Amino acid sequence: MTDRWYEEAVFYELYLRAYQDSNGDGHGDFRGAIQRLDYVKSLGVDCIWILPMYPSPLKDDGYDVADYYSIHSDYGTLEDFKAFLEAAHDRELRVVIDLVMNHTSDQIHWFQEARRDPQSPYHDYYVWSETGNEYAGARIIFLDTEESNWSYDEQAGKYYWHRFYSSQPDLNYDNPAVHEEMFNIIRFWLDMGVDGFRADAVPYLYEREGTNCENLPETHLFLKKVREMMNDEYPGRVLIAEANQWPEDVLPYFGEGDEFHMCFHFPIMPRLYMALEQHNKRPIVDILNRTPVPPEGAQWLTFLRNHDELTLEMVTPEERQWMWEQYAPDPRMRLNLGIRRRLTPLIGNDRRKWLLLHALLLSLPGTPIIYYGDEIGMGDNIWLDDRHGVRTPMQWSAEKNAGFSRAGETYAPVIDGEQYGYETVNVARQEDNPDSYLWATRFLLRARSQCAELQRGSREWYTTESESVLAYWRILDDSRTLCLFNLGNEPTSISLDLRELSGGRVVDLLQEDASREISNWPAVYRLRPFGCHWLHIEA
Ligand code: GLC
To answer: How far is the CA of 62 from the centre of ligand 1 (A)?
Structure first.
């Protein structure tokens, strides 16, 4: 495996608390997750990203870190973590962990010291103000809960800066000691053998008056130093940016191939849902036309859903309103600037739409990432607080607690009800059903893994006259595949002239039927409602 393994990989986002409880306390843990690694492997994914597993008061589900060098007791011990890492590596699965760089928990001893003693070296680890009036140009992210990015600390008698919950004070990157702390933390986990980091909330590391305090040049300088160190000391490990920004603002996070290996592509995600509901390819075409090609060795990371709300930060206010009306008719479904629902309920459990979205995800340029549970079409629980409704226990079987835990009570209730309840939607049941989402996931991942251009090829539009039919080529050297999607809910046909590629044969990788000679190819190609095709040309 080369240092550029991530370019061909498929990622799986695994929420530990939800995955498998091994000790009966109602919380998933590393020992439990180990038992499920064969399942993860069976999906055909290559790398697991686990959400923060550090000790934390869990005001933001672990994104409020209280100790960067240890494991939350719900999840086990450092030894358990190492065992998990080893068990994953034994199966040729890589593991990427979350690195929360921008802020800490207010419970970490750094902040405790900082607020207690202005003379303490830790005081300057945080960003303080006498007035709380600075940096007024910075937006508030957790709009539903926070009124300001400043909170007053009684003990310190000053305001401290925070971009997220007030229980998450931002670190002061103007202090070189903070850089050193971060470098130590990064080396600690890389020494242990993790394959990289998903760096959380990176646009916000620095603050500067008169700016929106996002994407500042100082931030890039620091991140480049991290990359340089990783290149020198830990080649082959990856650095992934969570920067919820427009493509042109994300581009600098790749640097010239000397910053992040991969960046999440946030704006394309809501547009996939938008195009599907508008039966129009325009939103996807427009954002892809606005998406630069990352420098050599760098890559987008694409996703349909994750552990947060389906964010609508990267759409216009009109589009956001439209998305809310379509996908979040009940106000309870809305959260901050997004939608707190899972993929399958969003599309009304429509198998055709599910397949189309996944075929899109797996054929767009970039490394795809699948959110745990979506591979079996899990539902959500919008009545849980914050974003917890999309973080419910993994549904393994129809047994008690969905086979997730033997506890009397689990950290969150398992999904109930006729359509998405664990008795209906679970791994065990889908294992036996070739028509299930689970089989479809495996089939799609296998088809992708056998097609080099879908993994690493360039993308070129194939122009169709229909506004509902999205079509693009993926091309690598002499290999090419035409990806075709009917976003419409009506059957349609397009003229599809492949004869210039004379001599070859065509095989639809999404159908399990035989290849056809191009010379026999129909000039008019029919697509079913929400039909999708990967037409691979065999030279
Ligand atoms: C990222 C995480 C989100 C968290 C936030 C603050 O956006 O995905 O879950 O709340 O950062 O750390």
So the answer is: 9
